[in-house]
């Protein structure tokens, strides 16, 4: 099977591997391509870290043609996708308008906020390239293309939601985001708005928390 791998520095390479290869051996191959040591390397698939080196590629559900992210440090992404932001100092206004309504009522403004947040967080962009390649490509194309694609995807989600029941989100993800200082109801609303995509939901929550003007003047 053939896998495509990318790094945070935009290095892209392919490997021909056996689906029964253990992850620790996959790391060894990646080390030759990236000069990242096996000890400090983490590999992600669909936003999840492949933490058990003894498991095989197939046991993680990886298929021929899939893309993986190789990172050069012990990952904190799954615990804090915004490693340079002190969430303890952020106050999220309790009456903040949720992103689903914002995208419907003022899609351009909300999309710009998300775009700027992603632009300052390369780790999030790297994850986006795996989870939502079309939106990542639009991000590379600039703000106007990003706005167009994000609006199209949101409309498609809205249309899809009309024909299916709401799905529940993993409690572990909800608690993780609540632990960053966000209100539980806001977290669930954002996850609903972005079809369970934790990274986009966090980008929107953070963008909203710094974009709402203060009333204390």
Give the H and E element order: EEHEEEHHHHHHHH
State the major sheet. 5 strands, mixed
Fraction of residues in H or I helices: 40-55%
Radius of gyration: 18 Å
Shape: globular
Average pLDDT, rounded to a whole number, is 76
Helical run tally: 9
Instruction: Tell me the number of structural domains.
Output: 2
Low-confidence stretches: 74-103, 211-217
Structural class: alpha+beta
Pfam family, one: ubiquitin
Keywords: Aspartyl protease, Cytoplasm, Hydrolase, Protease, Protein transport, Transport
GO biological process, one term: protein transport
Family: Belongs to the DDI1 family.
What do you see in this structure?
InterPro entries: Ddi1/2_HDD, DDI1_N, UBA, UBA-like_sf, Ubiquitin-like_dom, Ubiquitin-like_domsf. Pfam families: Ddi2_HDD, ubiquitin. Residues 154-163 have a biased composition (Basic and acidic residues). One of its GO terms (molecular function) is aspartic-type endopeptidase activity. One of its GO terms (biological process) is proteolysis. The protein has nine helices and five strands; from the N terminus they run ββαβββαααααααα. The chain has helices spanning 23-34, 99-105, 107-119, 122-131, 133-141, 143-161, 171-178, 184-193, 198-211, and strands at 2-7, 12-16, 41-45, 48-49, 67-72. The chain is globular and about 45 Å long. Strand 1 (2-7) and strand 2 form a beta hairpin. By secondary structure, the chain is of the alpha+beta class. Helix 2 packs across helix 3, helix 3 packs across helix 9 and helix 5 packs antiparallel against helix 6 (143-161). A five-stranded mixed β-sheet has the order 2-1-5-3-4, with helices on both faces. Mean pLDDT is 76; it is low at 74-103 and 211-217. It folds into two domains: 2-72, Ubiquitin-like (UB roll), CATH 3.10.20; 87-211, no CATH class.
């Amino acid at each position: 099977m053939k896998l495509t791998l990318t790094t945070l520095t935009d290095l892209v390479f392919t490997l021909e591997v056996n689906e029964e290869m253990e992850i620790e051996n996959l790391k060894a191959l990646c080390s030759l391509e990236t000069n990242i040591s096996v000890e400090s390397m983490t590999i992600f698939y669909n936003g999840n870290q492949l933490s058990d080196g003894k498991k095989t590629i197939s046991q993680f559900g990886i298929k021929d043609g899939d893309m993986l992210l190789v990172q050069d440090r012990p990952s904190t992404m799954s615990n804090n996708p915004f490693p340079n932001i002190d969430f303890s100092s952020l106050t999220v206004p309790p009456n903040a308008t949720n992103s689903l309504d914002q995208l419907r009522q003022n899609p351009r403004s909300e999309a710009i906020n998300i775009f700027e947040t992603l632009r300052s967080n390369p780790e999030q962009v790297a994850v986006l390239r795996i989870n939502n390649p079309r939106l990542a490509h639009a991000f590379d194309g600039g703000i106007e293309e990003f706005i167009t694609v994000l609006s199209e995807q949101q409309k498609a989600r809205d249309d899809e939601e009309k024909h299916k029941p709401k799905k529940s989100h993993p409690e572990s993800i909800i608690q993780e985001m609540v632990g960053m200082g966000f209100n539980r109801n806001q977290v669930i609303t954002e996850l609903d708005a972005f079809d369970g995509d934790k990274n986009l939901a966090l980008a929107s929550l953070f963008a909203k928390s710094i974009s709402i003007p203060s009333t204390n003047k």
